[in-house]
Amino acid sequence: MIESDEGMTLFDNKKKWLNEQHTDRVGTQLYMSPEQISGKSYNYKVDIYSLGVIFFELLNPFTTEMERYQTLTQLRNYIFPPQFLKTFKNEYDLLCLMLSPDPKLRPTTFGIRARLPLSTPDSNLDPILTYSTYEFELHNRKSSAIKVLKN
After folding, report:
1. Which of 36, 92, 14, 20 is nearest to 59 (CA)?
2. Which residues pair with 9 in a beta bridge?
3. What secondary structure does DSSP assign to the chain, as a single string?
4. Is residue 121 classed exposed, middle or buried when 0-12, 13-18 and 19+ CB atoms within 10 A define those classes?
């Protein structure tokens, strides 16, 4: 961290930071990229992998912690829930890139943004996927939702 007259900044050389290799194993294992788990050096593309896992979780709600753990573990091998591919074809294609075991094949954030907008919620989907509620817990979904007022 560098301190200047304008305040504090995390890095003095953005280009150096983008190409910097890291080797520390930090993070939650379900969200860690293959190169992090194997202890190899890594760069910012590990965040693309983690973002892919989070993106998947946003599209595929879980009812139990065990279901979440099993599904996210299978995701490492490109094993998606059967309905996911049918419901989220465009997202599936993007997630396969984001979750690639080879960091060079993962898109940048600009590449991800270029693929948007993706699917809009289908009226046949679970009402929780209509984006009109906020979720705070995995269990007892009905009582943990707060309705969002739309203008």
Report:
1. 92
2. 2
3. -EEETTEEES-S-HHHHHH--B----S-GGG--HHHHTT--B-THHHHHHHHHHHHHHHS--SSHHHHHHHHHHHTTT---HHHHHH-HHHHHHHHHHT-SSGGGS--HHHHHHT-S-PPPPTTS-GGGGS-EEE--SSSTTTTEEEPPP-
4. middle
Is this prediction's pTM over 0.70? no
What is the residue whose two structure tokens read 């009402």? 127
| Domain locations in the chain as residue ranges | 28-119, 121-151
Q: What CA–CA distance (Å, rounded) separates 104 from 127?
A: 37
d(CA 150, CA 109) in angstroms, rounded, equals 29
CA distance 106 to 134: 29
Fold classified for 28-119: Transferase(Phosphotransferase); domain 1 (1.10.510)
Q: 19-62: per-residue pLDDT in tens?
A: 555 445 555 889 999 999 888 888 999 999 999 999 999 999 89
* Residue in the block written with tokens 């590990």: 46
